[in-house]
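Dear support,

I submitted the protein below through the web form. The confirmation email said the job was done, but the results page showed an empty box. After a refresh the structure appeared. I'm attaching both so you can tell me whether what I see now is the final result or a partial one.
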Amino acid sequence: MKNSEKNLVLNFEKLGFSIISSALIEAFTSPQMQHTPIDEVLLEATNEELEYRKGSRANRLLKMAKLQNSVANIDQIEYSPQRNLDKLTVDRLATCEYIKSHSNVIVIGAAGTGKTFIAKALAYSACEEGFRSKVVSYSSLMRELAHHYKTNPLKYEKRLRYYSRFPLLLIDDWLCQAPEKQWVNILLELMECRYDESSTIICTQLPIENWPPVIGNIALAEAILSRITAASFTLRLHGPNLR
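What the results page shows now:
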């Protein structure tokens, strides 16, 4: 390599662009690329760097969401007629445009119909697209927040902000048990914080019309429901138990 080429490679290494540096070394030392314009060399090198960084960020986000070992993937979803699952809708959700518009997704189905798999597949796609995501179970989330609410109000506010700031929050087993009285106020506060600011995926066995009687306080239930369903996509799964 010429001195100028060596210095260019060294500068990119100092800037932390290791993939660009490696790509430039390969280009500058390859006889097949000796006559390739420098702008094309740099374009290819920077594309490689961007792809590497996108992959690294996706891996970090998958780990944060606890999806790094998940087998859930959009490409693995089955669309048999008895499932009542519209592929066009799922493909649209897989683009993550709903996250950009702060819309929600409600996945409803009996146990074993694959609702958690679909929800996690959507969250996996969100991580791949660079959106910070979090997967939690309804019961554990409520127990954690209720504990802090009772024992440490400052910690409660901190954790509430933590869960509010994820661009995508997946709550599995939504309303799998009747909420305690305190949980209802916490749910409303959480959904209020997330309303029109982020996206939530709700995974549940309960049809939406059954939420208010299970929650108990009809007025608060309607307030929670309205913040989730105001801008949402609903997937209602049918069919046999897939487990």
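Response: this is the final, complete result; the empty box was a page-load delay. Residues 38-64 form the longest helix (27 residues).
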